[in-house]
Amino acid sequence: MSQDIWIYLFRGHPTDVYFNRHALIFVDSREDGTFHHTCHIQRDAAKTPWQHRYDLAADGETFLLDVRFLCAIHVATLRVDAKTPMVVVDRIRQTPILGDADASDWNCQDWVADSLKTLLKAGYVDRATHDGVFEAFMDAILDGALG
Predict the structure, then answer these.
(1) In which domain of life is the source organism classified (predicted)?
(2) Mean pLDDT per 10-residue run, the chain (147 residues)?
(3) Of 16, 72, 120, 123, which has fewest CB within 10 angstroms of its CB?
(4) What is the bridge-based pairing of β-strands 69-79 and 51-56?
(5) Is residue 129 part of a domain?
């Protein structure tokens, strides 16, 4: 079965400054209309620990309709064994949270960038794909942000 890996980026809240923009990884399959998984990190409030969030999403369209949705960056289309459809999502889940509760210079954007490195190390993307997606992601984070 084929799976698409995406980075979804959302406007910052309460203000749309670049460091408030939320990023997540979305994995879905055109061949299996029930396969929609989000991988991201969040925290309940500033100075609280970051937590992994892995959800079976209703579908990708829901995100596209969110008023804060900015863009989708296609990372890759992969072939996976239909008997083990979670192999890519499980690999992304292995990306550690490297920012602690007091780190003001680390957020979900860093975790998504680290997840791209995880995909590179696992051989799901090559160096050129990684670098191109990373550059597009950095551009999207900064594009039109306040401040």
Answers:
(1) Eukaryota
(2) 97 93 95 92 87 76 84 98 96 93 88 98 98 98 88
(3) 123
(4) unpaired
(5) yes
